[in-house]
Amino acid sequence: MTRILASRPTTGPIWAVLLCLMVTIPACGDPAGPRTQDRHIAQSVALLLPRQHLTRHPLDAEISHRAMGLFLKSLDPMKLYFYQSDVDRFTQQADRIAEEVKKGDISLAYEIFSVYLKRLDERVALALELIRQPHDFTKDEEIIRDPDMLSYPKDTAEAQERWRKRIKLDLLVLKADKEMEGQAAVEKLEKRYTSLGKRMHQTDDEELTELYLTAICESYDPHTSYMSPETLENFDINMRLELEGIGAALQSEDGYTVVKSIIPGGAAAKDKRLKVGDKVVGVGQGESGDITDVVDMKLSDVVQLIRGKRGTVVRLEVLPGEGGPRQVYAITRERIELKDNEAKGRIFEQGTRADGKPYRIGVIDLPSFYMDMSGARLGLSEYRSTTRDVGRILEDFKAQGVDAVILDLRKNGGGSLQEAINLTGLFIPSGPVVQVKDAVGRVSVYDDENSSVAWAGPLIVVISKFSASASEILAGAIQDYKRGLIVGDSSTHGKGTVQSLMDLGQQLFRLPNAPKLGALKITIQQFYRPDGDSTQNRGVRADITLPSITDHIEDIAEADLQYALPFDRIEPADYQTDGDIDSSVIESLKTLSAQRVAASPDFQKVQQDIERYLAQRKSKTVPLNEAKFISQVKELDADKTERSQFEKLNSQGEQSGIERDYYLDEVINIMLDYLKYRVVARSQ
Questions:
Q1: Which of 12, 107, 372, 398 has its CA 20 to 30 A from that of 682?
Q2: Which residues are catalytic?
Q3: Tens digits of per-residue pLDDT, 317-336?
Q4: Beta-bridge partners for 621
């Protein structure tokens, strides 16, 4: 089975939504060693990578050394655990990777992970010792926050000094974040590091295989990866926008599984007992099954225990977030639609038309390009589809007499390539939407073949650095056709590649009931705009830029990622522009917007935050003097700012609808300026 994708780079969800289908939980404990199926998986990955990847790069010594660096970085990104001698020894063995993986041997991953767990145990023991020691918060010292400026510690003394500063920073963060200090802060950190050690020892063979093979895959480019059977199942659920479970989003906090949000309309929402902030400490199956203690259990295993087929009962042992004794809630699982990931529409009134009535502006929030691939394959008449949902919203907008449409793609990391093409077709009569070039240089043009247009009126597409891949296809085509304005961050993410999802069980056995071996997500093509420019590395550049912290966050754009493919261009496709957007219009609207932004207290604060953020990031260090640290946090905490932006990106179940804020107000004002321009232009 092969599926074509155009989706965001993996960012790692902050929490998990409770999913469907029970899966046996592996016994806790360190990974035992490569499994029989790992040989088949590794050999398949080694065979497919050099044959199918866009670059056709051989699986050789260069890829091996890249993979070693990426694997070590995935385990120890801040250089806190390994010694330099460990890394030197591993690096000397990097040449083994390519030849061993070709034979299906991934034993090196287990050798490295075994050393990692040993170092982890040593560091956790050290951390617990340091937490109890007194710290001088009046001393002027700093901790380096950029791991690229660090080498691995060379000995125990250097590791101890690095961890002393790490614990001191942890204590300062607790003081600044929650005003927690003294014994309460000590106990919280003790729980955090004890839980970390336990969770990492629960890493199972499937997870380690995925981590190691993905390091090899990402040595080709950032969007090629190996997906374990569990990861593949979760991916399918996200594309279908439906699951079977209780309907709650969970987050791991210091060893506890905490309810982050309740999905409206789900089983937990209907039951009404489970609340945001509750801690799930035990899970039982059925009305009377034993309850399994899940404290310090890794989040993915807790999710596996709670998920299950609709109509079955799961019992949750809960510590109420508001206090009180433990409770046990029996909840019957249901089918749940992830409505917070689907397209939403809302109409706002602002300004004054010639007839004295307010303009009606329709806003569509589109978090992803989703499609129920299984339903489409089976020919179901009502399978989930972005284009269908947005089409219905546009019909409703027209029925309610909207004057203009704003399509918000700020959180949209992509999804189905076909949906991106189909959705673009709702706004243009017909013609090429995207061009695709494969490994041998063949160019294919994908057209919108439907001549009907769902919305022919004024259009703005809102983007951010998080808008990736399929979002960039749509934004690029809208811009090339001069069909609408692109407003937001200075550019989109810059992911201009297409991935194929190859089911390894099907690839190996060619049977209807092939074993579940996961999938290889592999970059096979690069896509290009109708004008011939790739969006790779460069992204789609905004016509009008609005100040936003997301425009400046480090390491989120394609150009910031390791081994990203370069920008490229090909010959333009044969297309005709279909709108009235030209440089004079853009410059006029840009000037008016800049005047409003300069006068806006909200945007002034954003600009100040951007300047502070850039200054903090430029310093590459964090002060460990309490007065200086608290002063910096009061101005702006760069690390916390980044975390909050990624939480917004990954959040599910929290958005109840489209809300007005200063940013959307300015986008609407730009649209009103554009509407006035069109009225004047038509009168001349």
A1: 398
A2: 469, 480, 495
A3: 999 988 778 899 999 998 77
A4: 144
